[in-house]
Records
---
Amino acid sequence: MHPRSLFPGSLTSLLASLLIMAAPPSTAGDIDFSQPQPGEALPGGAASHSKAHNRRAFSHPNGNMPFEQRLDFRVGNGVFKKIWVSSPSSTTANDGLGPLYNARSCARCHIGNGRGHPPKDSDDSAVSMFLRLSIPPQNAQQKQQLAAGRIGVIPEPTYGTQLQDTAVRGLKGEGRMQISYREISVALSEGESASLRVPQYSVGDLNYGPMHPQVMLSPRVTPAMIGLGLLEQIPARAIEAAADPEDDDGDGISGRPNRVWNPHSGQLELGRFGWKAGMPTLNQQNVSAFNGDIGISTPDIPRAAGDCTAQQSRCLQMPDGNSELHDGVEASRIMTDLLLLYTRNIAVPTRRKVKDPQVLAGKQAFYQAGCQQCHQPSFTTADNPDLPQLSRQKIWPYSDLLLHDMGEGLADNRPEFAASGREWRTPPLWGIGLTETVSGHSYYLHDGRARNLLEAMLWHGGEAEASKQAVITMPKADRQNLIRFLESL
Ligand code: HEC
Ligand code: HEC
């Protein structure tokens, strides 16, 4: 029997928080919480931007980007905003949309490069959120395919790996994501309480017949697009060094790297991007988004019919936008290169109020609650002569980029490569305090179920259970300071 289960709940949590305080993880070191640490006001190092913290705060190029590249950044932004149209059209420059798609441009979902949100009511479209789909392996061959790691999931036989709710004229969208919520309440110290909404997902208006009975749905909201090039330049070994898959140090936290297939290098590599770290590189993420979200083919993924499956024969027969002018596909190599440059160089804003006593006290509460065990404060990026402005920067993403079991409450029960149905990648917290300013809402977590930062913390479970209990039991003033700290990131 696990010794802790001998104690009742509140005592267990008290012990858990005492344990954390007694043995601070090494990264806490001996931080002086009376003043900011050197460099922490610039989370992206010299690549941070110091422009206004307004609605456009996630739309600036890296502060140290050479002047000559800024034009390419703007053109890349143009590719990101480009509205695709269906084929055939009077121009071959923009056609190729779909046939099935979720949105007509990258920017339609990544609005202001900020985070998406669940539909506000049944009339609101789910444009900045979608459902990933798959099924468990059905036979030895599929088991073998998954074990070999070349594919991360077995697609739903008719609907593929993602629910596209829209289609070009003459074809039907696949169906509609439906969410219903029920509220549960959580008691906090000093007589406070919070209410969490527990979502339940289903798909309505299925236009291509019933789904497989074992279909697994994974809701995902659009993440913010800042600092991605810096995250890509963190040396894989620095991320892997923090992994502790068997929890050998016994702190209850066992970060694991995702291992995903990189078709470009032809090998399994560390996964970095997406809510389950299912993508190895920014280019792979970008071209997958082109194909799965908009239905656009690229030299890397030349499927003009996007996520249409063999069961969707009409979809496969629709005209495509492949053109000799674009390397025989719908978006040329030049376009994907510009998009790569753009997505690598969106700057992280400078922090606000780093010297504020409440913020500093909140930072201390963050360490005392053990948040930094997963939300690793800083890394130094690799030395890459091809990308000098992203090189050797001390950055403050507040993420270890590893997978953690977050408990049953957050589980989507849909594995993706090495990530289990309970694991999520620690999301970077940089810029999180500007969510309201940039995106006009404050919905957090992979499916936007949390309506504010406190709810986001209270959803933590699994490996983060002790951290959550620390938040529940800490004095109210500390909880408020902790939120001030998160708002300053
Ligand atoms: C329909 C909405 C939608 C569209 C259109 C879309 N995205 Fe995304 N994007 C998302 C969602 C949702 C995720 C999270 C995916 C996941 O976790 O698997 C994401 C993730 C990303 C990420 C990874 C960010 C991170 O923090 O890991 C990048 C980069 C990205 N998208 C780029 C693009 C580009 C480039 C395009 C256009 C070619 C695009 N997206 C189009 C919704 C969209
Ligand atoms: C065991 C690792 C772990 C610990 C410890 C942990 N977190 Fe997290 N955190 C995560 C993961 C993984 C997610 C994403 C979960 C999801 O989206 O379902 C997350 C999500 C969040 C989010 C929402 C981020 C977003 O982009 O929506 C916030 C805010 C956050 N954590 C703050 C904290 C704070 C504050 C603490 C300490 C009280 C803490 N976390 C402790 C792993 C951890």
Note: The radius of gyration is 23 Å.
---
Amino acid sequence: MAHIWPIGGGKGGSGKSFITSSLGRLSAGLGRRTLVIDLDLGAANLHTLVGVPYPSKSFSDFLQKKVTRLDDTVVETPFENLFLISGAQDPFDIANLPYEQKIKALRAIMRLDYACILLDLGAGTSFNTLDFFLLSQNGIFITTPEPTSIENVYRLIRSVYFRRIRYCFSVSQFKALEEEAIEQFGEGAFNKPECMMKVIERDHPESYRELQNDFNAFRFRLVINQLHKRDNAVLGLHICRIIEKHMGLGIEFTGNVSYDDHVHDAICQQVSFLDRYPYTKTAGELRAVGRQIFQPAGRQLMLQYV
Ligand SMILES: Nc1ncnc2c1ncn2[C@@H]1O[C@H](COP(=O)(O)OP(=O)(O)O)[C@@H](O)[C@H]1O
Ligand SMILES: [Mg+2]
């Protein structure tokens, strides 16, 4: 779905919600009806970042049939054109979304009528997160420059990749493929995308073509957040190259967003960082990332005034 942007990262605290809210603010500032959805099931806090401390409705109202349409859970934010589906009132067990409810949620999200929909996903590699990621080919991955965060984002991207492969096969077929990969390439090969794809190419050429087409159509992006002055500014490029080498996945490095204490200040004051601190380096970088992602040809100048 061209207008859906899932935003994820392997690790909590990397800035997924901050980047989601900032991109939402930028997209809305372009005059596009923009919806941000809190899908960090069980740890929702996006509402606070978009200036809605006490949302009256939640994503779970739809799953629990309190309302009939997902659209009925949308609340306004203080920003023109920016809307929110919050997770603030979700029940404690929402993280363990049963399969039928997940399918219901996925279908409902695809039917929503907004120019831009940003999904704030939870950390980790649960099937829920992976399936929300695969709703669209526009996934945006967030990591900090710390090795732990990079390791987790790499694991997440690999999990999304494997999850997409899994869609093509039954449980027993997939098991057979794993065994085949181990036999051909040795212990641990079932965990290596390139080995699995070689086996699929030989045993299931049609699925292989379908997967290749899909992987080629992905427009995955990587953003490095909380970059400090002494960090390597081209780290993102290196990570993308490694992913391309091992998964054959083209992933675009979309930019760095510097660490700035004002982010903390803005969050504590419950105001939009971009509005309160528009002249900081970090705000400029966020706008540059926004331009890269939304590419509103001919209207790029407007982003500078959000
Ligand atoms: N660019 C940044 N500069 C400084 N602090 C940041 C930046 N991005 C995020 N943070 C801090 O990290 C915390 C976690 O961000 P958040 O978006 O909630 O992470 P996630 O959603 O990935 O768990 C924020 O509360 C904020 O204090
Ligand atoms: Mg979050």
Note: Residues 4-166+219-303 form a domain with the Rossmann fold fold (CATH 3.40.50.300).
---
Amino acid sequence: MKKTDYLIIGAGIAGLTTAYHLKDVGKVTVLTKGKLRQANTYWAQGGIAAVLTKEDRFKKHIDDTMDAGAHHNNRDAVRHLVEGAPKAIRFLEKLGVKFKKEPAMEGGHSIARIWRTTDFTGQDVLDHLVKAIQKSKNITVEEDAEAIEFITHQNSCRGVFMRKKDSTGVEPFLAKHTILATGGLGQLFAKTSNTKASAGDGLALAANAGLEFEDLEFIQFHPTALAVPDDGRYFLLSETLRGFGAKIVDFQGKSFLEEYDSRAELAPRDTVTRAIHFEMMNGPVHLDVRYLDKKEIKQNFPNITKRLKQYGYDLFKQRIPITPVAHFSCGGIPVDLHGATKLPGLFAVGEVACSHVHGANRLASNALLEGLVFGRAIAEAIEKSKTIDEKTSIDETIPLTPPKIIMEPLAQVQAYAKRIGNIMWERVGIVRTPEGLKTALREITEIPARDYRIQHRQIVCYKMIQAAMARDTSLGCHYIAKTAL
Ligand SMILES: Cc1cc2nc3c(=O)[nH]c(=O)nc-3n(C[C@H](O)[C@H](O)[C@H](O)COP(=O)(O)OP(=O)(O)OC[C@H]3O[C@@H](n4cnc5c(N)ncnc54)[C@H](O)[C@@H]3O)c2cc1C
């Protein structure tokens, strides 16, 4: 029987940070659904927010986070996040990540405090974390290992049942503590910036174990992705571009954001997204950087410039067509400041968790930070309780009833996933209506899937729609119109 002290599900910034900090506490195993680096973390562009300059203050970062989150955040949790940020940056620097000397600006921040390496900061960060993990004798990584159900006994989590790629069976993996770090759920929507791995799996596991969610109605839609679908996702055009002066223009090439918010391009994401959504009803919307200093843009956005070329666009010669996309889940499984969930033995960290730091709308560059700060906090809490842990060794005699999984042909699964994506995008997207949500709930439930992967998507969508229906006034990125526009 497979067993480990600390079982981490997910290999993004949250999972690997937790793994790294636990490496001297006990035996750590990281399961990941695909290969290492197949995580949203790898695609993060902008960077990590942290107060590290003389002009900046913790209070300013806290206030900016609370303002972006429509004050639905928990101030103590936000303080924990913000005060942990400098240490988180130093931790990455110790691993070898080399941040630029000057911080960048992003929407919703009152001062430049985004620390980045290039315009693909996530890749640098994840590469360094992966290297550090691979060097640690106490950490094992199992790729192509998908967690599909928690093992619970006497109201506590004892590990997971997992399925290896290409297998139709499941096997148990027991642990003293299980740490869920499965990331977001963007793939539940037809248009998303998220990788294929981000389909809300962790939330489905939690729902099936009877856990409740908080703030699941707050799905952040990023305003500026390239309006060209690519293998199930849309390539993001970082917010930092707007920090450097990029403009968003309507089909006639005119700026319009000031009509919606005096901060214009630097307003928080929900405001910019909705403005673009409404403007797109008149025609396509574009990002325009042509009048900016070419050398500066090339220097600061080498990867985005290159990637756009591959898509056939020249940032310096033409306007780039953009679309909002589902980007980030602000809510999830509620956790305390140490990542503990209501199920003993289970922690949650990163995008799958609701640590109450984002409120109703996440401030840019606070997500990677959340994984770093809360990942460390979980490890510290586990280390502190280790003396108690040692008495409770893994019980291999508990009854194990593996779930019976049904797998339908891949084409059928993909067709169901597409149907769900369209329903969610149309009815549970940027602008919601009570009628649309009701219809979505019915349509999602009516999909006759038997495959567990689709049933997992259905349960998460169902919970999200219910949460959206329960909040009948707009707040942050949950925008509800009384009737269809
Ligand atoms: C394009 C893009 C750009 C972004 N830019 C920024 C930015 O500049 N700054 C910022 O702060 N945030 C940014 N974000 C948000 C941020 O990247 C994510 O919120 C953060 O990386 C989430 O980290 P995570 O570790 O929780 O999840 P992820 O990095 O998504 O990792 C999840 C892991 O869980 C695994 N997994 C999923 N389901 C299972 C399962 N059933 N069994 C086993 N393993 C599973 C996945 O394979 C993956 O390894 C961006 C997001 C995107 C998509």
Note: The longest strand covers residues 219-230.
